[in-house]
Fold each of these.
Amino acid sequence: MATVSVGRVRVSGETVLLVLVTALLAAGGAARFGGPVRADSLWAAADLVGLIPAAVWVVADLRAGRYGADLLALLALGGTLAVGEFLAGAIIAAMVATGRVLENAAQRRAGRDLSALLQRAPSQAHVRQGDDVVTVVIGQVRQRDQVVVLPGEVVPVDGALLGDGTFDESALTGEAVPVTRPASDRVRSGVVNAGAVVELRATASAADSTYAGVVELAQEAAASSAPVARLADRIAVFFLPAALLIAALAWTISGDAGRAVAVLVTATPCPLLLAVPIAVTAGMSRASRAGVVVKGGAALELLGRVNTLVMDKTGTVTAGRPEVVDVVWAPGATRAEALASAAGIEQYSPHVLAGAVLRAAERAGVTPLRAESVTEEPGRGAAGIIDGQVVQVGKLPAGLVMPNWARGAARRGRLDLASVIWVCRGAEPLAAIFVRDRIRTDAARTMRRLRAAGIQRVMLLTGDHVDNAVEVAGMLGVDEVHADATPAGKIEQVRATRAHGITAMVGDGINDAPALAAADVGIALGSRGSTAAAQAADAVILDDRIDRLADAVEVAHRTRRLAVQSAAAGTVLSLLAMLAAAGGRLGPVAGAVVQEGIDLIVILNALRALGGRTRKPHTEADALLHRFAKEHEDLIQVRAAVREAADAVAGGTGPRTDAIVARTYALLVERLLPHEYAEEHTLYPALAEVLGGPEGTFTMSREHAEIERLVRRIGRHLDESRRIQPDQLDDLRATLYGLDAVLTLHFAQEEEAYFTLDTTTASGDARHP
């Protein structure tokens, strides 16, 4: 129906209809005491007011080649008018109008406007003309033009680089780490210049470039998404013929048209028109309380039927920004020295990897050294003077001869699929800092919950390299991996997947917007995700917790189950009422009253969608989880010391090895063991109440015992003699490496299994070893 403007307020036609019908019904009730003719007139008017739009809806349905619940409502309204049962007709009109208002509210979908995509697209470009650089409207750029892109600007057109450049390509690939491209390499529009000024030769106009294609793909996908048939209509396909048959038989056998009208009154599909939208509306409210805004009832209904989930990687199942995962340093140096030197240089750099180094230094409690004369070469790194020596951070200088430890570090970076930031002092490498986008701590738990909720197939669809994608997929138990995917490739894969089942797509970047629009249900992470993704999606996760996705799927499945249950129960009860009316046991008014009772039953059942399992706050446990999560970060230095001691022992005996092992043992006794003891006697008892018993922490308690055993064994080694002897090396090395492995596993398990239970903060960011 049309929308009516009242002052500055826009009111839907369904709302106007409900208000008018309800007013006439109430006025007729009040007038009943003043004379039946006047009351009947008002009720007849209410019946007629409901009949007219119902006829319009039915005609529109029939022209579209379908029929459903509205046709039964039209027959009931017309029947009550024909036989003079005006009160029954007014009641039916009120119920039909109520159902329309609720359904309109439940199925209202947010427009998939692409304003974020369009706003991000540059409107101007800098073009070199001779010795001058002029700014022109983007549409004036032609192939072969020499385009200048300033730092931080979006590349306006596809082109070939005239010099080296560094670009943030996350808008198209989703990958958080900037990419350095050499001269003559192709660069696509939509990426951001993350380095110095670059120039390129345009290979396409703006209209024919990559970014324009992303916008067009999103528009096409939004336009091609098929509407979802109402659940009420699907049930009415079977219910309508049954109601008409019973009414016809009742009239034929009894010869009383009133019985046929009574059957139609009791057959009015109000349980369908009310229960389903009420359940969906309640489910949307429940999802909202869980931190997920679903933009329409159709989206929630579809989400309850999803069996295939397609997920982006970067920023969705990973933290979305690079973090330091390990540091390897030269013999004679230390981890703290390496981080302090690197942070001293990187504090002056805007590079995304510089931020990772600074965060690692802060977590390790390291103060950046004072650096002077800092310069940065895009694509190579930064350099400066620290304590009179040149310190370089980034790539290894050309021609530098790598010592053995550095060759091993480079190999480890390749094996770990990590980016390596080299710290060089003078002409010698000082340390290798490993950087990677880490998996979210709540991702694995979310995968398990999604499987339990009925998701049968999970696909990872990413623009990242295949090795990184396969590594993440293996950690999470994903069924399929499609890497190196472009926006066009993503949308084609989603469309192909839809042919095999109802598909949901989860993403956060601009490059995900077309795929989100193409999926049956698109779900965007709205906290750090792009506005374009949020606008193209059917549902938006408001904070940075990926486990909200499992909440949304669970709510959607429960909502759909209650909607179907309510509709089915209402249908069965209505059939029984129809049989009673056909036998003369219920007249039209009594049938309308009985129908109201049926409505009440199914509505109350549908409102159960407001409940369900919820993440209840546990004040004491949450406070402890905060505390111990912070302590995990504070223990980075201790865990790094264990690995350093193991490496030192692997190098043989000597005063340096003795000192490192002794210092490590002191850190373990003074800092690590008190932490583990506090967890065992403070955190775990509090978690037992949340987890339903002490069995939920038994495995972690066993690991505490193993950690303490290994620390005691290191202590006994130190007690054996004043200096570590050669015959101790094998066992001590095995003990230290074993402790490092147990600590890595134990901390990861606690962070995934326990720290994600914190109900008050986002748990999406990965913890750091």
Note: Residues 81 and 581 are 18 Å apart (CA to CA).
Amino acid sequence: MKPLLSFILIFLLLYTANPLLAQDNKQELLQQAQSLNQQLVKAYQQGKYKKAITAGKQALKIRQQVLGEHPDTATSLNNLALLYKAMGDYARAEPLYKQALQIKKITLAENHPSTATSLNNLALLYKTMGDYARAESLYKQALQIDKTALGENHPDYATNLNNLALLYKTMGDYARAAPFYKQALQIKKTALGENHPRYATSLNNLAVLYQAMGDYARAVPLYKQALQIDKTALGENHPGYATDLNNLALLYKTMGDYARAEPLYKQALQIRKTALGENHPNYACSLNNLAVLYQAMGDYARAVPLHKQALQIRKTALGENHPDYAQSLNNLAELYRIMGDYARAEPFYQQAQLLLQKTLGNSHPDTALALMNYALLLQKSNPQAAIFFAKRAINTLQASRQQNLKLSEDLKKSFIQSQENKYRTLANWLMDTGRLPEAEQVLALLKEKEAFNYVRRDHSRAANFSHAINCSSAEQSWCQRYQQISEKLTTLGQEYVRLEKKGGQRSATEEKRFIQLGQDLDVADAAYYHLIDQLKQAFAEQDKQLKRLNMAQLDNEPDNFQEVLLELGKQLGGKAVALHFWLTENRLNIIMATENNRVAKVITVDSQDLRHKIMDYRQKLKNYKNVRAESQYLYQQILQPIAKDLRQVKADYLMLSLDDVLRYVPIAALHDGKQYFAEQYALSVYTAATGVGLHLTNKPQAQWHVAGMGVSQGATAVENNNERLDFSALPAVAKELGDIIRENNKDAGILSGNVWLDEKFTLKTLQNTLGERKHQVLHLATHFHLRPGNESHSFLLLGNGHTLNLGELNQRRYRFRGIDLLTLSACNTAMGSIKSGADGSEVESFGTIAQKKGAKAVLATLWQVNDDSTSRWMQHFYQLREQQGLSKIAALRQTQLAFIQGRIKAKNGQAKGGQKGLPYDHPYHWAAFILMGNLL
């Protein structure tokens, strides 16, 4: 991050006159001090910190002699401290900051804005030193002072917001950082204009947050804007401009654009070398970043010496208890691992994760990264130990995710995407070693994280969505020991670092405690290293034993999910089987779970090509093209590898847990050359995020009473961002509801119930109906507009032209308890627009929300279906359920078969795909409907 030297300070430096002194010699001395301050400012702006310090010392000496304890003296102390901090000399900076703060409290009062500035600068020093607890307390004091004294529209108040946000970001608490950054940016834009360096600082900081969350599209323009501002305002030789170059280069490197990153890194390195010297932490940062770039480019010969030089500088400048030193240890270890030099890599990895455990704790993404990197090192030589540490990494991310509950939906999604690969890697390892139930659990956590984008959590419910990965029976004792030691390390380490930073300011009691903590930490460190050695030996022996066993022997114990499958099979009168699919790079993983065992398949695929083929298939299908060739190709890629196994277990009912772009595929419509998949099996979608067994085996009411609500007229809806969306009329909706629902004995509907059409379909009607709990089916025949990842812009269209978005729907007053089936007979109810990079996570969004709020099952659509054929589909589905007593999944399959076999034909004139009387047999008409949740 950019070293923050307050521009208010520069203002104070230039205008610190003392009108109370009458003597000519004193006035002359003060004028000399003022001139020295001007020299300091000029030297700082040129990046010449040593020259600035010399001028600062001279100015301070004059003011101490002439003024004594005076605000101007405090300003000189503060200036000199800021310069020492910028040079990385924290030991000299701290007492100067404290002295300046004390003078301002005495001479100006504790609630003066200048006192807030001193608090702010001292807090920044502690933040830089890694003492986050003291930094947070001081930042909050400064924030409150400036809020009261200056108001919430002042640039200094914005600076305090920005600094507090930066602290939270450094701590990994992105949820608290984001709103402060945004508020600070807006204040500076209004108060200072868009060409001011302080505005550039806020742009930079917000971009860094977006980058940390994986939202590169929003980070790039902010970085570029900040770079241009500082180039003009500070010049191309200033450390602040170097920081802008460094940040943009880091983003390009993260995006894989090495050609753009390298010259920016080199330019930043040279500026810092000239302006700050070769012993400064920021120079070490540039060395480290350039080394990481060369490492990514495969140029290890240039990377190694840069990493070593950065490590030594950080050790000297920051000490061996600083997270940046841990980062250098981790980076050097990672380079050795990639080079295949595991013996050199391992001690650096262990030291890095020990240090991060002590300084950052068990809920920071950096701790997770160090654990995962160590797991990668162990993966080939000791796979069971690798899994152990990978589980620790995922649980650390789960704790971090819990900490970031308040993030906006788009940032939560970016954070999830940036960490997703760690989950998939662990799932692959578990699968490769035959630990299939645990692989399923990891995938469930990943699904839970995806659903988290669409289901707003309040704190009273948050604990239900931060599950950790369980320890296996073989891992249990090691998990307990590791947890005990890691918690002790975190507690002792953070207290030790806090006291260490106080240096000579420790009291006698604190000094005694500091010595004792050092001794305790030595013992804890030794215990940690000893634990790792023992753990590795134990798991290595376990690996040898496991290699002697057949994979089938590893999975003898039935778990809760297999009991669910057994019960479902009994109630459905057939074999219930779950299929878990997930994609990683050039690999399709499949787990087939039955009531007795599990079978794993790993298929090599061109994952990028598969994504393109799926999107092309969907577009052709939606446009009513001949898709037989595409359907057969996708069958071969996705289903053929497991087809023989399904036949062997005599499967009847399949619960599909789909991942990534596979969720866009209408699995029912895939064709083996002879039959559609729907002709072979009854299919449903299993949303693992809703929890194993949730509602899956609960028997529905024998008789259904339906609440039917719909919109038949065209309408214009206005979103929260004032965007107007025009929706076409749905003329078949009135007939659809009339054919399904009979409100009295004169009506011809299939099921008894009530209808609310057009202007009668209001929020109040929906709330009252759900509250009464008289209906077992809620049938909504209206437009549903879904934008992935944005619950406030995804909504149902109501009959009076109003909307109900997902955020509002997720409020407590909308309860779906008692609803056996929520039917969404509408446009795109399960899926939003297909965009570049879409991963299909929104497919399960509405279904997940509804099930979380009590609905046992959801019937939705994957694309906009013909109005008339939808009406026919729904009518046939309900008829089979009412007249033949079929289960929901059986009724769905029989309806699909009726369409496939041409028994359902167009009635109302020309329909999409043919003239009146022609069958609706194209998969466009019948394959879009998916059932989620309870199958009975």
Note: Residues 508-547 form the longest helix (40 residues).
Amino acid sequence: MFNHSAFRLAKFSALIRHTLSASLCSALFVLPVAAVEFNTDMIDVEDRNNIDISQFKKKGHITPGQYLVSVQVNKNTLPQPLMMEWIATEGESGSLLCVNAEHLTRFGLDPDFISELRYLPNGKCLDLAAKPELLFALNKGTMVLSITVPQAWMKYQARNWTPPEFWDQGIAGVLLDYNLYASQYNPQGGEDSQNISAYGTLGFNLGAWRLRSDYQYNQDFRNGKSTGSDSSLARTYLYRPLPSLSSKLTLGQYDLSSDIFDTFHFSGASLESDESMLPPDLQGYAPQITGIAQTNAKVTVSQSGRILYQTTVAPGPFTITDLGETYQGQLDVVVEEEDGRKSTFQVGSSSIPFLTRKGQVRYKTSVGKPTETGHNDVNNPLFFTGELSWGWLSKVSLYGGTMLTADDYHAVTSGIGFNMDSFGSLSFDVTEAEATLRQEKDEKQRGFSYRVNYAKRFEETGSQITFAGYRFSDKEYVSMSEYLASREGDDSTTNEKESYVVSFNQYLESLSLNSYLNITRNTYWDNSSNTNYSFSISRNFDIGPFRGISASLALSRIRWDDSSENQVFFSLTLPLEQSRNLMYSYQRSGGNSASHMASYYDSSDRNNTWNLSASTTEEDLRHGEPSLRGGYQHYSPYGRLNMNGSVQPNQYRSISAGWNGSLTATRHGMSLHDYSPANNARMMVDADGVEGIEVNSSRTRTNAFGIAVVPSLSNYITSTIRVNSNTLPDGVDIENSVIRTTMTEGAIGYSKLNATKGYQIVGIVQQENGHYPPLGISVVDKASGREVGLIAEEGFVYLSGIQDDSTLRLTWADKTCEITPPNQSNLSGTAILLPCKTVH
């Protein structure tokens, strides 16, 4: 009997359960290479003659045979375990891992490197003796085969990127991602108005296939009576990744994805290279949306009538940066204030077209019929579009494309792109289009459009992005969108002449200054021009004892219906203790009087944040009618709640609430969880029915069925998922607390935590004859067959996950004995005696 208080659960569990079986091997690996002799007196006398430890005399020895192992190559894990074989050799270790060309291909090694290798005389194992830099190491405790390969021998050279061999397609399952929003506005002496809206995605995964249907719903009320509603299935489509081609196949109702032509909704099929499968330096650039809200405003981002993003923002500047890189063309942004006023503007999401590695080809091709969002219109003509880029030189790409219809429209584009390394990327292209419009039945219209784009991603500063574009179209040029509008008899479309887009975001470290600029200007042959811009600068500084003071200035131009006005916003933020702060802001819009606002923010509880503010103009102050506003956000494992309210005496009252979340279900279980966009990967974690295990953070936690879903994993980028071991429920053990995975687009991953819940007991197992069971014998729960511990020296054992009234069984050689453990843990006391009664 001895006191074991120093052996806490986490350390002792790792020592006994996870590494005991490999401890002798690990110790011997650090000994000299020469054979050594061992004192077998350390082994129980009864079993000494039955144990052969000669295998441990050689460094790195693995008993010949086949083993199911998890494979890690340069810390990237293959999605599926492999059966690997070790064969006997005359070398210093006495055994050798048998690796063939197929294995090395699956490990992601370069085909040219593999072709240089030769097989051993047995004809099934490659001779790797001349490649000592290629290292293999098996951890027998975890059965993980770690492989270290020089980067030059790998098929892909990009850093911070996981090759396709390690991508996981996920499992079959159903998902529902939803966003709910409701608001009410009560003006003094006017009609009350209410609004309810929802949007999201319903999806189903089967193998590599993903079925998605985007839905949206909106209903308005006046004094509680409905004034109209609108609902639609904006898109319904089926797609699957094709990693071998770095491409994606899509079928159904979708939006044209093109780096060259304008986007539009269509029903048909497309096959295109997927940029997200490429290394980061060859990917596109995500749009960033900024603006200034005057009240608690609803911001909606849409394209072709389909809602992409919707949120509520507090008064002042807002920035939306999480739209991703999958959108092409112009995005429509609507900022709806509490009183119903709406400002609109557009943001360009174009990227540098098709910068391609030397000798490689990237492509996009689609065929179908243009349709309106949520509808099929068989009267529209069949169209085909194709575009490709060829890596002509190491830094130069040639690209082009065509758009054809079965009737009377066609367009052809050709261009060239340059990768200028630290100076960014540049492209130039020309498009010729020929069409017969509805108004000109007897005469074809032919014109040209010229475009130049420049972009640079500042990797050294994170997500800093620069994008600039210019396009000129002559008067006779017709885009596909204009052609389709003409067929519908819509003469209201404008004929674009020039468009400028400049987007710049840069942090100046020497001044601790962050700046952002976005300018969009469009001119037309038959209409007045319009210009939208937003500019902001912010700086952090210290004054005496006040640290981290922030000042920012934002300027923007917005449109109210058919008129434009400029906005100015200035703010000064003073941080307080424990994630609280005070803010003063000044805002002026057009010719309106200036508004002053004081706000208090509290985010000391990361799962519950709130704010209060009071604002007034000089006129409101004279009448004693300042505006009071408040907001509250709650983050739970099941979704997010957002509530906002405001009141101005003798003017109005307003309240709004939103909830977004997701549901994921597979054959292993289901879980409500935080919102995840439908085409982002997610990981289902199975804790064997154990509730309350935190994964990554307290916002993801296993439910009553032991299931949790980690949302919004990056597609084709390795994600690390960790169990919070410091907050495990009492009596719970986790075997694999860290999961590394790389998921394909829209995949539902699955991983078991191998969690056990029950009592933890430290004891000494002793047979009826006073002897101890042999070292390394497994202790198994008789009812479930689950291993609950391993015998150490002198019968010492750590048992975990012991259930009430359980019986534990030990079997070795021709002997079996059973233990009846107590129904309580003893981790804070001394090791107890556990008699093991012989079973005849």
Note: The first strand starts at residue 65 and ends at 73.
